[in-house]
């Protein structure tokens, strides 16, 4: 296992040895797909990397067999190089079938030939003169024609391995597959790299790649668990258009929110002054969301207000701001100069304050309001409004009744609600046109040397990539409930990839230069 210092990555990665160089070391092959493998890519000669190994068990090659077929797909090709060398030293006949998405993913051909192997390659797509298709097609053709059974060893994507296994069973060939699973320790303590299979009595049992692998007899494996039917988020297919990024959020009773781009900032992340100074490029933002607006001017919480945490920050700004009257007078005209849909985020300490805020903004021709129900309810001991479906319903209903049917209302939910779907449905039934989530998670940080809080108030709202898995889960819960209104996902969104992982019509992105989640 190897581990390079990569942002946001704590785990080592398992690799198979590609080539060895005596006492000089060895090489591995990898594909850059994330921050971890990107860190390997940028390593320079002389830099250190954590190493642990070798792990697992020797691959059980049965040298009584005379013929072998090695099947490799993608980066799985690397795992077969040392096997081909060992078989060549035993003077075995070895056929090697290599497949990849394109020709750039097929490597090591000359090294395999140097080990006395017969090579055939195939790619999913072009360009190039080679054959198109799947590597299992080469295996199937060979098994149909062979007169002497070959032992099969395969490494590659799991669906490929499953097909190799099925062909081996169909034609009566012995088959071993080399598996890789994400693991945290590498020596059998975490039990994360589990592989399920059946013993000789047909009873299910579990083994682990780090201790028992990487090679497993394909007939032992429970393939239904290794390659389960995956549920993939289906993206809507629209007609070809000259404005492919244009997004329409359809609320209730015919209310709509038109966005040129399916991206907006999260409340608290962006102030009008930063845009005016060209610190932030808003050309590809579909809507602008204000910082939380309160009824009266607020100085905010004591300092320190911000501290860094692993993969995020904690903030306790306290909704510092000028109050709604000054906002309407001095700030609203500045926001409107950008000619973007403006979403006014409102934060009240009582249900009456939410209503008063909404009425004042509605009279100022604000057409989109986001109700931040994560605020503490001072009439009930400071518990967040958003934890109680009945209170959320009451606030939403009263705001809707006060502003009429022309205002598009979004209700922003707290991740700390016991049943967030129930809260979302309560808001929608009371008149919400869309749901946005999540707000920050309550967090705390303590200085290990002074044992003092890093935040002046003691705690605050945690944001950043660290909370994204929680955000994705809760957003998925609400979106899967088929409530009939749009869902706007947020929480740790800091890249286009993170937006896509949300799988939603509109994703607020926390401006990378600021990295602040919605204010606590």
Note down, in words, how this protein is organized.
- With 520 residues, this protein is α/β, with parallel strands linked by helices.
- The chain folds into three domains: 2-51, no CATH class; 67-226, Nucleotide-binding domain of ferredoxin-NADP reductase (FNR) module (Rossmann fold, 3-Layer(aba) Sandwich); 251-300 and 319-440 and 465-508, Alpha-Beta Barrel (TIM Barrel).
- The protein is built from 14 helices and 28 strands.
- A six-stranded mixed β-sheet has the order 7-6-5-8-9-12, sandwiched between helices.
- α10 (351-363) packs parallel to α11.
- The two termini are 41 Å apart.
- 40% of the residues are buried.
Key traits:
TIM Barrel, 14 helices, 28 strands, 20% strand, 520 residues, six-stranded parallel sheet, six-stranded mixed sheet, alpha/beta, Rossmann fold
Structure in a nutshell:
The protein has 520 residues and is an alpha/beta fold. The chain contains 14 helices and 28 strands.
Strand order of the largest sheet: 7-6-5-8-9-12
Secondary-structure content class? alpha/beta
Distance between the termini: 41 Å
**How helical, in percent, are the residues?**
25-40%
Kindly provide the name of the CATH class of the largest domain. Alpha Beta
Number of domains: 3
What is the count of helical runs?
A: 14
Low-confidence runs of at least 5 consecutive residues: 509-520
Oligomer: single chain
Q: Can you tell me the CATH topology of the largest domain?
A: TIM Barrel
Mean pLDDT: 87
Percentage of residues in DSSP E strands: 15-25%
Give the biggest sheet: 6 strands, mixed
Radius of gyration: 29 Å
What characteristic shape results from the CA principal axes?
A: elongated
What is the CATH architecture descriptor of the largest domain? Alpha-Beta Barrel
Q: Give the name of the CATH superfamily of the largest domain.
A: Aldolase class I
Counting DSSP E segments of at least 2 residues, the number of strands comes to 28
């Amino acid at each position: 296992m190897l581990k390079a210092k990569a942002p946001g990555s704590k785990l080592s990665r398992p690799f198979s040895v590609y080539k060895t160089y005596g006492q000089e070391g060895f090489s591995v092959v990898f594909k850059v797909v994330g921050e971890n493998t990107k860190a390997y890519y940028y390593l320079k000669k002389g830099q250190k990397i954590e190493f642990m190994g070798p792990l697992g068990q020797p691959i059980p090659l049965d040298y009584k067999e005379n013929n072998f077929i090695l099947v490799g797909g993608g980066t799985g090709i690397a795992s077969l190089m040392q096997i081909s060398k060992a078989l060549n030293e035993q003077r075995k006949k070895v056929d090697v079938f290599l497949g990849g998405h394109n020709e750039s993913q097929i490597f090591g051909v000359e090294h395999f030939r140097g080990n006395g192997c017969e090579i055939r390659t195939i790619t999913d797509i072009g360009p190039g003169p080679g054959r198109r298709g799947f590597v299992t097609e080469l295996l199937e053709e060979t098994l149909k024609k062979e007169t002497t059974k070959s032992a099969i060893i395969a490494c590659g994507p799991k669906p490929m391995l499953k097909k190799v296994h099925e062909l081996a069973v169909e034609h009566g060939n012995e088959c071993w597959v080399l598996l890789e699973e994400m693991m945290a320790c590498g020596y059998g303590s975490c039990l994360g790299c589990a592989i399920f299979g059946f013993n000789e009595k047909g009873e299910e049992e579990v083994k682990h790649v780090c201790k028992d692998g990487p090679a497993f007899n394909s007939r032992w494996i429970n393939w239904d668990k290794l390659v389960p039917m995956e549920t993939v988020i289906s993206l809507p297919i629209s007609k070809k258009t000259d404005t492919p990024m244009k997004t329409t959020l359809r609320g209730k009773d015919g209310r709509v929110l038109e966005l040129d781009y399916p991206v907006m900032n999260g409340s608290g992340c962006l102030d009008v002054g930063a845009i005016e100074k060209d610190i932030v490029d808003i050309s590809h933002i579909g809507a602008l969301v204000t910082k939380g607006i309160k009824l009266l001017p607020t100085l905010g919480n004591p300092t320190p207000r911000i501290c860094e945490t692993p993969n995020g920050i904690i903030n306790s700004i306290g909704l510092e701001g000028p109050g709604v009257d000054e906002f309407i007078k001095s700030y609203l005209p500045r926001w409107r100069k950008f000619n973007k849909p403006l979403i006014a985020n409102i934060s009240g300490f009582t249900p009456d304050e939410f209503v008063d805020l909404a009425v004042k903004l509605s009279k100022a021709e604000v057409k989109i309001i986001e109700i931040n129900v994560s605020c503490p309810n001072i009439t009930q001991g400071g518990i967040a409004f958003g934890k109680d479906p009945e209170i959320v319903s009451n606030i939403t209903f009263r705001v809707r009744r006060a502003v009429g049917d022309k205002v598009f209302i979004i209700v922003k939910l707290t991740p700390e609600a016991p049943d967030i779907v129930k809260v979302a449905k309560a808001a929608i039934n009371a008149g919400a046109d869309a749901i946005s989530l999540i707000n920050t998670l309550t967090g705390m940080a303590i200085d290990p040397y002074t044992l003092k809080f890093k935040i002046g108030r003691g705690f605050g709202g945690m944001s950043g990539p660290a909370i994204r898995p929680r955000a994705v889960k809760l957003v998925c819960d609400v979106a899967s409930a088929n409530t009939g209104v749009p869902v706007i996902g947020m929480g740790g969104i800091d890249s286009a990839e993170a937006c896509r992982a949300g799988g939603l019509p509109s994703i607020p992105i926390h401006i990378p230069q600021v990295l602040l989640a919605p204010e606590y």
